[in-house]
Design brief:
The complex is a heterodimer of chains A (about 400) and B (about 250). Chain A is α/β, with parallel strands linked by helices and about 400 residues long. Chain A contains eleven helices and 16 strands. Chain A has one domain: Thiolase/Chalcone synthase (Peroxisomal Thiolase, Chain A, domain 1), CATH 3.40.47. In chain A, strands 1, 2, 5, 6, 7, 9, 10, 11, 12, 15 and 16 form an eleven-stranded mixed β-sheet that branches. Chain B has one domain: 3-Layer(aba) Sandwich (Peroxisomal Thiolase, Chain A, domain 1), CATH 3.40.47.10. In chain B, strands 1, 2, 3, 4, 5, 6, 7, 8 and 9 form a nine-stranded mixed β-sheet that branches. In chain B, a hairpin with a 5-residue loop joins strand 8 and strand 9. In chain B, helix 4 crosses helix 5. In chain B, about 55% of the residues are buried. Classes of the chains: A alpha/beta (about 400), B alpha+beta (about 250). At the A-B interface, helix 4, helix 5, strand 6, helix 6 and helix 7 of A face helix 4, helix 5, helix 6, strand 4 and helix 7 of B. Strand 6 of chain A pairs antiparallel with strand 4 of chain B, so a sheet runs across the interface.
Chain lengths: ~400, ~250
């Protein structure tokens, strides 16, 4: 079992999703139980499902020096970077610590795939049209390259792409860089955007619900796909009021590429490792933001693990009924929601769910609850059996 | 910035011209004259049915990774893995994008599934029953240096040997043209976070400067194959590691 790690300060964080732009928009929507899912109005070929679409992406105009990297994903990144003034905060960290002491870790599953899809719709004699022919737009690292131009950090820079756990894993990577003295600050970014590949891909896997997803409901019938951009700044020290990253745990199911381990072995290993690094017991966890995708299998396994590992006093919910499953951005979006819950001292409920699955324990919160919260977990369990669990602590009041 | 010190406990590699690391190493040492023709990595670590269906990147990654683990004598089931690929599974993606442009509802679930960046590391953990952390990275042209640095950082931070694999598969089609996906190769190391014991040893240092950074994975393999440090005790290679950065890797016996 891993040993305890020193906590790191999360000196800034923000999120942009179907719930709106920035922390206040998210907190308000969660408090008012106002979901962001709508009927699919994104794909030209009809696909009856609900999507978590971010408004205003289409009207974003990127500045001239970024226009060669124009894509839906980067426009969403642009919107997200300007929420809560995060871009200024990130640049401030670069100025304060020195560019070589700041790392930039990006996470995405889609990257700018929307632009690649557009290029294939506009092939000219088998070649990409000139406006879409730059290779930087079609690599997974496109998001990292785009942010690198804006932020100006000169520490390590890379893009993680492990499907639905991507933007949770960058918290673990960032923590290691700071612990080893390889960086003094780490800018974390997770951005995933709606595109044909994921909508029709998950549809082909028969995992998409025809209606808004209902996590942990006995009648649940699949996911709703959403898009989001989330950012966070990790630093060794910070204002005592800043929340803390207390622990992280990563594991692999080694069971099946797209179905979780039936006893949740990988999930348990990740939870155990995360709590060990945080130096906490399961009884000290006040809130869990669950992976809770609303697929039959994920929720059945995750519900059983939570019911087995945590006491009844731990509260747990999935917020995917609000935002949809934002895939590569889900880890950081839901980390942000867990941090908002700690800050506002409330448990956001599980939207769209009326009758919990029989596997659910007493931990599942359907409605919102005002509660004293000190420690929150965020679960991310992805394709390929790739798991990551994060532990957050509340900053001093 | 401080350096990361590691011992290479196992090496694996594959190229269509040289086959596995022992043959490739002999060619790099000038011990064999001619290249061989080995179009498909055997990847016997995968169950036979998987091996038949697996896309190129999965075969490449699993072949090199299995060689490196075998040389290290460590149990793959316990090794956290960091896999990295510059282009992703371009051949499958090309087919997927063509289908999406023509008839999106005809997209094959298997194609979609195999296009996901962490498919190779997922198949690897399944085949080896590895429950440790697994990662899939990209940093475009600088993927090799960025991912090797992450693998080294993970090994040192958690005081555990780590499996690192980097691979790319050549492809054709509109996307492959843009991505310049014309090289097929795989390389894997088992990295042990110790500075003593049998070598080779690596010291990695991330530097915020680009001066004379042009090394690539093949240059590192060449140094490892020859283990010839020209009367000096070590050789240092500088890899580009993103705009305004490089990764210096000192190799010693």
């Amino acid at each position: 079992m891993p040993s305890r790690i020193p906590p790191l300060a999360i000196t800034a964080f923000t999120a942009t999703s179907a719930l709106g732009r920035g922390r206040d928009a998210h907190l308000r929507a969660l408090r008012e139980r106002r979901g962001g899912l709508r009927a699919n109005d994104f794909t030209e070929t009809p696909l009856p499902c609900a999507i978590g679409r971010v408004d205003g992406i289409e009207s974003v105009e990127l500045p001239a020096h970024l226009r060669d990297l124009d894509s839906r994903n980067h426009r969403l990144a642009w919107l997200g970077l300007h929420a809560d003034g995060f871009l200024d905060v990130a640049r401030g960290a670069v100025a304060r610590h020195g560019a070589d002491r700041v790392a930039l870790l990006a996470a995405t599953s889609t990257s700018s795939i929307g632009a690649t899809e557009a290029a294939y719709r506009a092939l000219d004699d088998g070649r990409f049209p000139a406006a879409l022919a730059q290779p930087e737009l079609h690599t997974l690292h496109s998001l990292g390259l785009f942010l690198d131009r804006l932020v100006g950090a000169r520490g390590p820079c890379m893009t993680v792409s492990t499907a639905c756990s991507s933007s949770a894993k960058i918290f673990a990577q960032g923590e290691r860089l700071i612990r080893l003295g390889l960086a003094d600050a780490v800018i974390l970014a997770g951005v995933d955007s709606l595109c044909g590949s994921v909508l029709f891909g998950f549809n082909a896997l028969e995992l998409v619900s025809p209606q808004a997803c209902r996590p942990f409901d006995a009648q649940r019938d699949g996911i709703s796909i959403g898009e989001a951009a989330g950012f966070a700044l990790l630093e060794r020290d910070g204002d005592a009021r800043a929340p803390r990253l207390l622990g992280h745990g990563e594991s692999s199911d080694a069971h099946h590429m797209s179905t979780p381990h039936p006893q949740g072995l990988g999930a348990r290993l990740a939870i155990d490792a995360a709590l060990a690094r945080a130096g906490l017991g399961a009884h000290e966890v006040d809130y869990i933001n669950l992976h809770g995708t609303a697929t039959a299998k994920n929720d059945e396994v995750e519900a059983a693990v939570v019911a087995d590992v945590f006491p009844a006093t731990t509260r747990a919910s999935s917020t995917k009924g609000f935002t949809g499953h934002t895939l590569g951005a889900a880890g950081i979006l839901e980390a942000a929601i867990a941090l908002l819950a700690l800050d506002a001292q409330f448990v956001p409920g599980t939207l769209n769910t009326t009758t919990p699955d029989a596997a659910c324990g007493p931990q599942l919160a359907l409605g919102n609850e005002d509660r004293a919260l000190r420690v929150a977990l965020s679960n991310s369990f992805g394709f390929g059996g790739n798991n990551c669990v994060l532990v957050f602590g509340r900053g001093e009041a | 910035m401080s350096a990361l010190a590691l011992r290479i406990a196992g090496i694996g590699a594959w190229s269509p011209r040289h086959g596995a690391w022992p043959q490739w190493r002999a060619a790099l040492r000038g011990e064999t004259a001619d290249a061989i023709d080995a179009p498909r990595p055997p990847a016997t670590v995968l169950p036979q049915a998987e091996r038949r269906r697996a896309p190129s990147t999965v075969l490449l990654a699993c072949e090199a990774a299995a060689q490196a683990c075998a040389m290290s004598s460590l149990d793959a089931a316990n090794l956290p893995c960091v896999f990295a690929c510059k282009h992703g599974e371009v051949a499958i993606s090309d087919d997927m994008f063509a289908t999406l442009a023509a008839d999106p509802r005809a997209l094959s679930p298997t194609r979609f599934h195999n296009s996901v960046h962490n498919a190779p590391v997922g198949y690897w953990t399944l085949a080896t029953q590895c429950h440790a952390a697994s990662n899939a990275l990209s940093a475009w042209r600088d993927t090799f240096a960025a991912a090797l640095f992450e693998a080294a950082a993970l090994a040192v931070a958690d005081a555990t040997p780590v499996l690192f694999a980097a691979y790319d598969a050549a492809a054709s089609g509109p996307l492959a043209n843009v991505m310049e996906a014309n090289n097929t190769f795989a390389l894997a190391f088992v990295l042990d976070p110790v500075s003593s014991g049998a070598g080779p040893h690596l010291r990695l240092r991330h530097v915020a400067d680009v001066a004379s950074a042009s090394a690539d994975a093949l240059a590192l393999l060449r140094v490892l194959a020859r283990a010839d440090f020209a009367n000096a005790k070590s050789a240092t290679l500088s890899f580009p590691a993103g705009d305004g950065r490089r990764l210096d890797i000192e190799v010693s016996a």
